[in-house]
Design a protein that fits this description.
156 residues, mainly alpha, 3 helices
């Protein structure tokens, strides 16, 4: 047993044991602090909740103020942009409408001119066809006479 006692008295074992006891003491201290904290939390939970609610209300108020300030900053600029877009849209719509109306009137005039031209040409074609139809009937009867003249000229 003398060997066992020599080992227990050795500086290495003593240092190891002190380290082990320090580690054990640190855990006991942490446990005690945690237990105290839990006990305080249990005792003061109403006060803690009240404190947290007050802080939450303060944050909410700051956020609402920030939103109000942002709206106050953005809304005038947004309204200005809306007015500009509306003005440009109105200009484009009126310009497009007036241009379309002008083009429609121009095309309507051209169509009327073309219609008159087609009507005039149709009348001319019809007037040329009617006399040709009247002349075509006697030519059939006269055609044999014309052939005789051609035959006489060929013979001569």
């Amino acid at each position: 047993m003398a060997i066992l006692e020599d080992i227990k008295k050795s500086p290495v074992v003593r240092a190891y044991r002190q380290g082990w006891l320090a580690w054990l003491g640190a855990h006991k201290t942490a446990f005690d602090l945690a237990q105290d904290g839990v006990q305080k939390l249990k005792n003061n939970r109403e006060e803690l909740v009240k404190d947290l609610v007050e802080k939450g209300e303060a944050v909410e108020e700051q956020a609402q103020d920030g939103v109000k300030n942002a709206k106050a900053y953005v809304e005038p600029r947004l309204n200005e942009v809306r007015e500009k877009v509306t003005a440009v849209r109105g200009k484009l719509a009126s310009r497009s409408t007036s241009e379309a109306t002008d083009r429609f009137e121009e095309l309507s005039g051209e169509i009327a001119k073309l219609s008159k031209t087609v009507s005039g040409l149709s009348r001319k074609v019809n007037s040329v066809r009617k006399p040709a139809a009247n002349k075509a009937a006697p030519k059939k009867a006269a055609k044999p006479a014309a052939e005789k003249k051609t035959a006489e000229k060929a013979a001569a």
